[in-house]
Every structure is written in C-alpha cells, then in structure tokens.
Amino acid sequence: MEDRFNILIAGLGLMGGSLAKALRGFKNAKIFGFDTSCEVINSALSDGVIDEGDTKAEKFLLRADLVIVCLYPDLAIRFINDNKFKKGAVVTDICGVKQYVLENITNPDIVFIGGHPMAGREKTGYSASIPDLFTKASYILTPTEKTPDYAISLMREVAEYIGCRQITIATPENHDAMIAYTSQLMHVVAVALCDNELLSSSVGYSAGSLRDCTRVADLNAEMWSELFMENKKELTERINEFEKSMDTIKKHLAANDTSGLCEFLKSAAKRKRDFLS
Predict the structure, then answer these.
(1) Domains of the chain
(2) Neighbour count for residue 203 (Cβ, 10 Å)
(3) In this structure, what are the phi and psi dihedrals at residue 254, rounded to the nearest 5 degrees?
C-alpha cells in the first residue's frame, strides 16, 4: 500500500508535459507519465519531469490518486471508459469541450470532474512544454451534482499550485457556450483572415494588427476540427452572431451612413473598455 500521493498524466504533449513540470512538488507526489511514444517517455524521465513512465497506462492506474487525461476528446473518452482506476481516485480531463465528453463517459466507477486550463502555445508536443505555461492563466472546472466536494477541492489546489490566477466553476453547457465565443470563434476568424491571397503580399502593410488577429491561425488542424465539430451547435450560433455584426458594418458602408457606422464602432469600443476595467 502506497502512502505517497500519486499523479498520472496521460498524454505528455504540450499540455500534459507542462502539467507534469508545473506539478513537481505538489503534495510531494510521485508523478507517473503515460504516452504512446517511447521517445517522449524517455525524454520526460531524463528531464526528471516524471518519476516513472510507460507506454501502457495500466501499470499506474490502480496506484494513481489523481489522473489527468491530456488527450483529444474522443481519445480521452475512450481512455476513461476502457480502464479501471483506483477506488476514490479523481479523474479529470483538459478538453476544450465539456458536454460532449461528459455525455459520452460511461464508466460508472470513477470520480470525474471536467477541467479546462485556459493556456497554450503555437508550438505542440512534449518538446514545447514549459513549467510556467499556466502562470496567471484561468482554469475552468465543470463539476456536476454527482461530483464530490473533495474532487472539487483537489482540483482547486492543483489549479492554484500550477499558478492559475482565476478558477471558474461552470456547468458544461455554459462552458461550451462561452468557449465557442472566447476561443473557438477566435480561431475561426483567424483562419478566415488567412484564407485570403492578400496575406502572401501583406508584408510591410501592417503595424501589428494583422499579426495579432491571425496569431492563432497556425493551429493543430486535427485537434481544432474535432473541437469545432463536437461543439458545432454553440460555435454555429457564435458565427451567426459575428456575421450579423459584419452585416451591420456592410449596411452602414452601403448606405454611406458615416454617423451610424461611428455609433456602432463607439458602442463596440465601449464594451471593450468595460471588459478591460
């Protein structure tokens, strides 16, 4: 019987690797790492990021008190449904959609709490992971009425330990509606801006706004396609709202309505200032 607190990170990519690095010292825990890549496991062991690692998670599942599943949604669901976990262990994910994951988890024997650390980089993979990725970030938790208090408390501790400045408790439904606006729509807009042949000849024509607006366009297409499809209802609604705003600007331009356009811009600018304050 192990007295030491044990953590399993399932998937040592950018997020999983960064979590493993950021959690070093948490509860004096032993950190296990699972990844399908032997090279990644060896690198994490060599770096001292994990204490034990393997390409088979079964070696650690019945020993882990906390399991953080850092896989794409469909893979995360399969991992959670197909494995047995230590009794009472807290299982969480980091997926960018929450209703889809919760609705498809069928394992009745786990203590699950949805999670979503709001952090990332344009680079991917273990080699891009950094221990301060979550510093001053937000961490969203989506417990349900079945989630025990100790699971929520543990995940609050985790979020605080890795440096998050804000912990938000949300329903899975509210999470997906908000993320469709704050994250997914931003990626859609960035990609749409890059879907223009003018981009290739734009050097020297921007003071930084083009760079800032398209920063997230260099994305992981496989992952974001999955996230968009799994939250398509909410994302479609956000796109419709965006298109309505764009149509308003087009109507003011077509009508040569300078004052109407000015009022529209003033209203949006005020919302931005209110948000910042």
Answers:
(1) 6-170 (3.40.50.720), 174-276 (1.10.3660.10)
(2) 8
(3) -65, -35
**Which residues does 208 contact at the CB level (< 8 Å), separation at least 6?**
none
User: For residue range 31-46, what is the model confidence (pLDDT) as tens digits?
Assistant: 999 999 999 999 999 9
Q: 73: which residues sit within 8 A by CB, 6+ positions away? A: 93, 95, 96, 97, 100, 101, 226, 227, 230
Q: Edge-to-edge, what's the strand order for the sheet holding 138-142?
A: 52-54, 30-34, 6-10, 66-69, 90-93, 111-118, 138-142, 166-169
Closest by CA to 120, choosing from 229, 21, 192, 219, is: 219
Average of per-residue pLDDT values in the chain: 96
Task: Tell me if 123 sits within 8 A of 105, measured CB to CB.
Answer: no
Q: What per-residue confidence (pLDDT) applies to 228?
A: 98
**Hey, what's the torsion of the CAs at 137, 143, 149, 154, to 10 degrees?**
-30
3-state secondary structure of 54: strand
Could you give phi then psi for residue 204, rounded to 5 degrees? Answer: 90, -5
Q: How far apart are CA 111 and CA 88, in angstroms?
A: 6
pTM: 0.91
pLDDT in tens, 138-182: 999 999 999 999 999 999 999 999 999 999 999 999 999 999 999
